[in-house]
Amino acid sequence: MLAHTSIFEPRILDAFFDLSRRTVEGTFGKTLVRGIFAGWLIALMAWLLPATKGSRAHIVVVMPYVVALGQFAHIIAGSVECAFLVQSGRASLTQYAFDFFLPTLLGNILGGTTLVALLNYGQVAAEIDDHRE
User: Fold this and answer.
1) Residue 98 CB-half CA count within 13 A
2) Are 35 and 72 in contact (CB under 8 A)?
């Protein structure tokens, strides 16, 4: 809806387009790798939150900031950016689906589940080794 209103000046809309355009510009592989790192970082954030008593706000601010700073692909934030491009007619639904959604979703799933699996294994590895002996 923002793409079709006069709420923002043209220079602000141009800035939105510039920021959003990178979501559909990468190759499938590049976006997949960016998605893996984003999934890893967000899973790490979820893993760290229970351990941080008074610093939760810091974790919630810093980790997504690192995702944005690294220009990693996250399915939720990036979908908002892509929706702006699609609504403005500067990207098609096909571009959204195949250039962003699919590689980003796969990357986020791979990154997040791999980190969680490794952390879970790390917690019980000693018990597994003791049980084998």
Assistant:
1) 3
2) yes
Q: What is the pLDDT of residue 6?
A: 80
Q: Structure tokens of 87?
A: 């609504």
Global pTM reads 0.85
Residues 131 and 56: their CA atoms lie apart, in Å, by 36
10-126 topology per CATH: Glycerol uptake facilitator protein (1.20.1080)
Q: What are the C-alpha distances in Å from 58 to residues 18, 38, 63, 93, 133?
A: 28, 18, 8, 36, 43
Distance CA 115, CA 41 (A): 9
Dist CA 10 CA 76 (whole Å)? 26
- Cα(114)–Cα(30) distance, rounded to whole angstroms? 18
Query: Are the C-beta atoms of 49 and 56 separated by less than 8 Å?
Result: yes
